[in-house]
Amino acid sequence: MASAYQAARQQAASIDRSDRGRLVVSGKDRASYLQGLLSNDIVALTAGTGCYATYLTAQGRMISDLWVYELGDVIMLNMPSIATRNTVLAKLDQFIFSEDVQLGDVTDVFAQIAVVGPDAPRVVGALLGDSVERLAALPEHGCLRGEIAGGSAIVTRVTDTGEPGFDVYVERDRLNAFKEALAAAGVIEADSATADVLRVEAGVPVFHRDMDEETIPLEAGIESRAISLTKGCYVGQEVIIRVLHRGHGRVAKKLVGLTIEGDAVPADGSLVRSGEKEIGEITSSVRSVALDRPIALAYLQRDFLEPGTAVSIDGVPAVVASLPFVPA
Question: Domains of the chain by range and CATH?
Fold first, then answer.
């Protein structure tokens, strides 16, 4: 774990993310169709750009978060798991009426490997036969097509990995060749535990762990990235606007960071207390390599959100911390 972590922070490391879900939306009405369903501004996307978004119920609760990439002829949707892919695909299909829109499931067509770290542009650029400068200049959610390991590939700029880098989508039958090319380039593969440390240090919530079907995006603190305040109507917008404007953005609970004393990493689901009062619950916890101490993401009641607030977990002192724990 230590070598993979240091590679991610100082050189380049890979993270296998093939267990995520991948859909494509084609047809000339694809952007306007998604515009009425997702929380971000899809029609503003041009070829080679993307965004982070949420798909909400009419009550403003999350069906899933997802990453949207306009590739020029199709829009690719990336979701955090196979389960959310199944749910999103079924719901999207229900809303196609007379639009020129077709849905395709490409989860099994592509493998997805993230290459992260300061050397990621050089590594991916070399494998893609593209310039380091072009890869380094690709903005967050930017996307492009090319060839890697003898097959077609899609590259997207990502930050939800904790350490910025690229998701590389390669044809499934080219996966082993791609991994061999990464190894030959000196890229170390990070296991899931290392990937989790990078993510939690960056304060990035993940669906079905730090967010679920009962979560309003404002509770998870993702509204600035996932929600457009200038676009037209979308499912769940009324609830979001009401909370933002009438409630001044105040929600009953919110996701925060905790730094924890001692060496023991508390279990996910551990209760957080202020004195004897139960005020929240941990959703993700790791031992931070950068801070050399346990840290956690947790939902706390709104009166306990201020950084520096003293709390406890199973009797162990902890302090509310600003996110991210470790800036990118």
Answer: 2-18+109-201 (3.30.1360.120), 252-328 (2.40.30.110)
